[in-house]
Amino acid sequence: MSDQHHDRPPLDGGQGLTEEVKQAAKDLNGADPQVILEWGSKRFGRALALACSFGYEDVALVHMMHQVDADAKIFYLDTDLLFEETYRTRDRLAEKYGIRFIRVRPAYTLDEQAKLWGDQLWKRDPNSCCMVRKVEPLRRFLKGYDAWCTGIRREQSPTRAHTQVVEWDTQFQMVKLNPLAHWKEAQIWDYIHQHQIPYNPMHDNRYPSIGCIPCTRQVQPGEDSRAGRWSGTNKTECGLHPSSTGEQGGDLT
Fold this sequence. Notes:
The protein is an alpha/beta fold. It has a single domain (15-201), classed as Rossmann fold, CATH 3.40.50.620. Helix content is 37%, strand content 9%. It contains eight helices and six strands. The protein has a six-stranded mixed beta sheet. Helix 2 crosses helix 3 and helix 3 (56-68) crosses helix 8. The radius of gyration is 17 Å and the shape is globular.
């Protein structure tokens, strides 16, 4: 479960690839997520990496990807601030499906971060904390790949309403697959229960979106599913998935 990737020349984001991505987004829009994963696996092979936060969308996606390619590269960002339940979900998935999750870590420990920017940076400047512990580690890791796959969905928030199932990621200069973009929450839970996929039990206790411990709270009835993230701030994204309004902020889902 170490931080591993392979070195590849940067993907040429020229006109040809841009048109290919647009065509794929059109052709695959509304397709079964597994069909989208099959396209990505065939097109990019070992140059495709799937991101997993161990939230309910991602555990479903991991199961789908495992059906497509049992040796697929699946990674997670370990910020050193994850819930114990998140690690246990990782271990249950690894044991059940024989998956070797790739662990991606920040360049700085929490103590080193505190020495450089002060203690509990997430309270004073959550954007900078996400940049150090999520965005930059992901940027370094993805340099070894041509495409990455996420569990983000249009239904999750207004900033994700226009997500395409295949798109060009301008931040990381690579192709991005979002196979669940068009799925509803109920569809995902039906899939999880149908296939008896291990999931984080915190989801059963009003935690629809789970990130780092200091920046995650329970969601109250009537609140948006991501209202429990960075509560008390105007932050809704961690920076891995910048919105069309340019908000920076990075969680995997």
